[in-house]
Amino acid sequence: MSVHFENIAFRYPAGGAGVEDIDLSIGDGELLAVIGPSGSGKTTLLRLLAGFLIPDRGRILIDGRDVARVPVKERGLGVVFQAYALFPHMTAADNVAYPLKLRGVGRGARAAKAAEALAKVGLDGFGVRLPASLSGGQQQRVALARALVFDPRALLLDEPLSALDAGLRAGMRDEILRVQRAAGIATLFVTHDQEEALSMADRVAVLKDGRLLQVDTPRALYERPASHAVAGFVGHANLWPGTVTGADLVTTPIGRLTTATVGHAPGAAVTVLVRPEDVVAAPAPDAPNLIAGRIVADRFLGSLRRLDLSVAGGLVMVETRRRDAVEAIAIPPEAIRLLPGGR
Ligand code: ADP
Ligand code: MG
Q1: Confidence band (pLDDT; 50, 70, 90) for 343?
Q2: pLDDT tens digits, one per residue of 6-54
Q3: Looking at residue 121, which CATH number applies to its domain?
Q4: Domain check: are 276 and 184 in the same one?
Q5: What range defines the domain where residue 220 resides?
Q6: How many angstroms separate the alpha carbon of residue 217 from the centre of ligand 2?
Q7: Which residue, of 116, 155, 253, 310, has the greatest Cβ tally within 10 A?
Q8: Which ligand neighbours the alpha carbon of 48 most closely?
Q9: Farthest-apart Cα atoms in the chain, separation
Q10: Given strand 154-158, what is the order of strands in its sheet?
């Protein structure tokens, strides 16, 4: 089962915002995460695939068939919303069995299937409980079981973990991934949490203002962001405007930095990306790109420390495990990535 968005455009009649120029595919068994700031069009994309919105232009193919105008019910997709939308007066088992009831499955078969789906999400024996007597994480799993019970052709998840507290969220990531892998179905996972996307997805699509900026594996997105916007949204980043001023030399507000400039003409405007974990907090005196500075923010984050170092010309964000004072940093030439264009 695969999904293809082909040149999809949609505008809300009221506002005008929506999505535009969307070309995107989800492979068989693939978990594709869609990330982007609030209002970037993530939910719109999911609702287009689910069938709650009809595109103005383009095709949505499921296994090669255009479903853009096929009613919601006939698409056979499992959907989990941000608020789990369980029926409060129905037991967990009845909630899970509901999609089967809609499809005319008999009572006995429904009960058996629902029990099986609940077991799959680790809720064996919870079928008799009402939603109000379940924790957030358990309600979330009931919603997941309900989305999976009819063997959907694809799974659509819209910020399914955002209502959970931080502790539960990490566990549920593993849980969702386990269930998704076991079911082996194409999954569209919408989140505003880039860490969630990087840790779970096979590929990540970055949306901004209704347009796709980049679609790549988590590692490629982090290590080779295509633009300033992607680099800034995915992970923490130092980003400076720069000019290529010579062979292996880039001039930035924080000074001239040595790095490979292959592929960039002399005089070219670039964006200079350095991840904070690549900045060296206790450099050798002869290290390249050595810069003196003063700590202006010092955040203890448990496993590491995130510093803002004030240097001549700007700030450098540094992540280090060192506990001592930092008075200079070095930026290894190979840690510098040049992105096309200034800001
Ligand atoms: P996200 O899920 O990424 O936060 P949405 O897809 O919900 O973003 O929204 C994308 C854009 O469309 C936003 O600018 C939002 O304000 C607008 N929008 C969303 N729903 C509607 C609606 N029902 N009517 C008009 N505009 C909407
Ligand atoms: Mg949304």
Answers
A1: low
A2: 999 999 998 779 999 999 999 999 999 999 999 999 999 999 999 999 9
A3: 3.40.50.300
A4: no
A5: 3-228
A6: 22
A7: 155
A8: 1
A9: 77
A10: 77-80, 154-158, 186-190, 31-35, 203-208, 211-216
Q: How far is CA 30 from CA 51, 69, 203, 326, in A?
A: 20, 24, 8, 44
Among residues 197, 228, 259, the one where a domain terminates is 228
Instruction: Report the separation in Å between the CA atom of 241 and the middle of ligand 2, taken as the mean of its atom positions.
Output: 32
Q: How far apart are CA 337 and CA 88, in angstroms?
A: 52
Nearest ligand 1 atom to alpha carbon 18: 12
pLDDT of residue 117: 93
Look at the block and give the residue holding tokens 């050798």.
Answer: 284
Give the residue from 176, 209, 228 where a domain finishes.
Answer: 228
Residue 141 reports pLDDT greater than 70:
yes
d(CA 71, CA 36): 28
* Nearest atom in ligand 1 to 36's CA: 3
Domains: count for the chain: 2
Q: What is the 220 CA–ligand 1 centroid distance (Å)?
A: 28
Statement to judge: residues 18 and 88 lie in one domain = yes
The set of protein residues with a Cβ atom below 6 angstroms from ligand 1 is 12, 14-15, 17-18, 36, 38-44
Tell me the C-alpha distance between 131 and 129, whole Å: 6
| Conformation bin of residue 324: beta by default, left when phi > 0, alpha when psi is -120 to 50 | beta
Q: Are residues 203 and 248 in the same domain?
A: no
Q: Are residues 132 and 273 in the same domain?
A: no
Same domain, 219 and 248: no
The pick from 43, 162, 194, 209 for probing ligand 1's pocket by mutation, whose C-beta has the most ligand atoms within 8 angstroms, reads 43
Residue nearest to atom 16 of ligand 1 (CA): 39
Q: Give CA angle at 14 (12, 17), nearest 5°.
A: 45
Dist. CA 77 → ligand 1 center (Å)? 22
> The pTM is what?
0.90
pLDDT at 85 over 90: no
User: Of the ligands numbered here, which is closest to the C-alpha atom of 20?
Assistant: 1
